[in-house]
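Researcher: Structure prediction, please.
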Amino acid sequence: MATTPLWLVAALALGVPLTAPERAQVLAGDVLVTTTGDQHGARAAIRIAAPPARVFSVMTSCAQALRYVPRLESCRVIEAAADGSHARVEHVVKPRWYLPRIRFVFRADYRPPHEVRITNVSGGLREHEARWTLEPLDGGRATLVDYQVRIVPRYPVPEWLVLATLKRDLPAMMRGLAARCEQPAR
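Model: Predicted structure follows.
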């Protein structure tokens, strides 16, 4: 009997919808952060008082990402499709004071204003898969943002450290995204 490759299991898991209790928690105003069973993945969700198009615009902007993503030191679009359907983006992060900076490149596939899928291209991450989904709420005046991610560094890092970093940084990232989206547009 053939086994399913781990990368495929991870990719399929990124499409799992929120459970009813998780959804209720987010709609009540909490930031949801959970970890997945494979010890390299996590999920975060939040309700943002802004329409999906505004949230999509903020979360796909490098200038904005530098303001809401913890430990992100650099964000640069390397290449973007003329039709806006995808881009290759480089990030440089400093995960902890005692760890080296990580530079990585990913491909972002866009389905505005509802979804962004991230796949690893190169750099300091052996695996990096993520999915952002944006669900309109309140007749399109608000958005439920669901972020699922799986990260495996290229160099040896204890799994507990990866999870601890995600558990610490994801709530700050989601709250920061909400704050940027809820500001009046300039």
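Model: The first helix runs from residue 6 to 13.
Researcher: Thanks, that helps.
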